[in-house]
Amino acid sequence: MLPGAWLCWASLLLLARPAQPCPMGCDCFVQEVFCSDDLATIPPDIPPHATDIVFVETLFTMVETRAFGSNPNLSKVVFLNTQLRHFGPDAFGGLPKLEDLEITGSSFSNLSANIFSNLTSLRKFTLNFNMLEALPEGLFQHMPALESLHLQGNWLQALPRRLFQPLTRLKTLNLAQNLLAQLPEELFHPLTSLQSLKLSNNALSGLPQGVFGKLGSLQELFLDGNKISELPLAVFSQLFRLERLWLQHNVITHLPLPIFSSLGNLTFLSLQGNMLRVLPAGLFAHTPRLVGLSLSHNQLETVAEGAFAHLSNLSSLVLSHNTIAHLPAGIFRDLQELVKLYLGSNNLTALHPALFQNLSKLELLSLSKNQLSTLPEGIFEANYNLFNLALHGNPWQCDCHLAYLFNWLQQYTDQLLNIQAYCAGPAYLKGQVVPALKEEQLVCPVTRDRLGFRVTWLDDRKAGSSWDLAVQERAAHSQCTYSNPEGTVVLACDQAWCRWLNVQLSPQQGSPGLRYNASQEWDLRSSCGSLRVTVSIEARAAGP
Length: 544
Ligand SMILES: *[C@@H]1O[C@H](CO)[C@@H](O)[C@H](O)[C@H]1NC(C)=O
Ligand SMILES: *[C@@H]1O[C@H](CO)[C@@H](O)[C@H](O)[C@H]1NC(C)=O
Ligand SMILES: *[C@@H]1O[C@H](CO)[C@@H](O)[C@H](O)[C@H]1NC(C)=O
Ligand SMILES: *[C@@H]1O[C@H](CO)[C@@H](O)[C@H](O)[C@H]1NC(C)=O
Ligand SMILES: *[C@@H]1O[C@H](CO)[C@@H](O)[C@H](O)[C@H]1NC(C)=O
Ligand SMILES: *[C@@H]1O[C@H](CO)[C@@H](O)[C@H](O)[C@H]1NC(C)=O
Ligand SMILES: *[C@@H]1O[C@H](CO)[C@@H](O)[C@H](O)[C@H]1NC(C)=O
Ligand SMILES: *[C@@H]1O[C@H](CO)[C@@H](O)[C@H](O)[C@H]1NC(C)=O
Fold this sequence. Notes:
Helices cover 4% and strands 21% of the residues. The protein contains two helices and 30 strands. The protein has helices spanning 3-16, 403-412; strands at 26-28, 32-35, 52-56, 62-63, 76-80, 86-87, 100-104, 124-126, 148-150, 172-174, 196-198, 220-222, 244-246, 268-270, 278-279, 292-294, 302-303, 316-318, 340-342, 364-366, 388-390, 396-397, 423-425, 454-457, 467-470, 480-483, 489-493, 498-505, 518-526, 529-537. The chain has a 17-stranded mixed beta sheet, with no helix packed on it. It has a five-stranded antiparallel beta sheet with strand order 24-25-28-27-26, with no helix packed on it. A two-stranded parallel ribbon has the order 4-6. It binds 2-acetamido-2-deoxy-beta-D-glucopyranose (8 copies). One 2-acetamido-2-deoxy-beta-D-glucopyranose (NAG) binds next to loops. GO terms for molecular function: carboxypeptidase activity.
């Protein structure tokens, strides 16, 4: 026999070796067993070397006392969406290596403390999305090694004061999506190792002053989606290591000034979706490590000059969806690291030219959905990295005052994506896209003391050439703007004077060719009435 053929035969033999017996309705892998059939009981013949067993959508309702006693090497037992309703005393007894126990998506509403006795190795315990309404005080009594406890998505309304007493090694506690309305002040006091606490989406309306008083190791605290309206002055005062604090979607109306003053390690804070009206100066004076701060969807009307002082590491600031009408010139002065600034959906009517002057790292700026009609000269002078600018939803006034923004957009137009800024006025430019205009269209009415014409001739020799007669001056807005139906001739007048005339003629569109001397009349209308304008052009012999 050839050596190659012999090898092949040997490996076939290996494959054909009779598999370890696997219970009906289960699949057995090296050390894992998955059971997902209509099993009526826990199978008695689970392979003895199994370390992990997972039941998915099985039909049995009961785990008897020491049900897994013949599999002492099990370290992980999981029930997902099963019909479990009853547990015998010491149901998971005899599993000295059990580290991870999960019962998720069943419909039991109560548990007795003796079910989980002697789980001395258990490190992770998950009881998510059941229908638990209450927990007995001694439930975790025999779980001294527990590091991670998940009780998300149950119907818990209250918790016994001493429930977590034995869990001094706990690092993660998830109580999100329950119906907790109140917390006993001492509840979390034993949890001196806790790093992450989730209380999101409960019904908490307030917090006892000392509830987090012993959580000196906490790094992450979720309080979002509750009904908290006020926070006690010192509620966070012992959280020296806290890095992330989520307070979004509550009904907080005001924040006492020292509330964040112990949080020197805080990097992310969300206050989105509350009812804050003012942001006092000094609120963030002791949180210099903040990197992300969201205050969107509040009712902020003003923001104090020093509100963001010292936030020299802040990278993202979200102030959108408020009613801010004014921003102090120096408000962003200390934010040299700021990359993203969201100011959309506010009531801003004007911005100070120095508002963004220290923000040399700014890449994204949203000014959308405000009341801005123009932006001041030089406003983006220091923002070398700005490439994402949202301008839509503002009543841009496309006149001479918009020239800075227009030129800035022209210069960076390759980098800027999708500038949906439309002119709200003057009437004849309404609806035009700002970056698509020609600079000579951005004109202002002349004033009484400076009446003069600047005539711009475009290249007369090209087909379809046109010429513009435009007058530029910074001046008060006109009261009446007359125009012909096509919008090619516009005359702006106030009560006493007509101050501005704009004529666009295109020889190919039926207007007379204006090569040299010419004269033309138009009937113009406005809401004030109608009038007739005659323009005569006289060609000069030479000169520009
Ligand atoms: C359980 O694990 C130990 C140590 O890992 C091993 O010696 C023993 O054979 C295992 N028991 C079974 C039934 O597989
Ligand atoms: C809940 O209580 C009922 C009645 O006391 C009991 O029959 C049932 O086994 C308990 N369920 C659990 C999961 O402990
Ligand atoms: C708890 O487990 C230990 C070691 O596995 C065992 O010796 C002891 O008898 C158990 N106690 C109870 C009450 O089950
Ligand atoms: C930040 O946390 C470290 C431990 O991670 C701690 O030593 C330090 O005091 C904390 N800083 C402040 C300002 O609280
Ligand atoms: C800002 O971030 C840098 C780099 O992550 C860090 O070295 C510095 O200490 C931080 N500044 C403050 C005030 O925390
Ligand atoms: C903000 O603007 C909205 C829409 O323009 C207006 O209804 C509201 O009254 C303004 N609020 C304030 C405080 O100015
Ligand atoms: C920010 O700008 C102000 C005014 O120009 C300047 O005095 C200050 O030094 C700048 N701050 C930083 C941190 O760059
Ligand atoms: C335009 O009119 C001026 C004065 O009315 C006249 O001197 C000049 O020759 C005219 N030019 C042309 C090209 O008709």
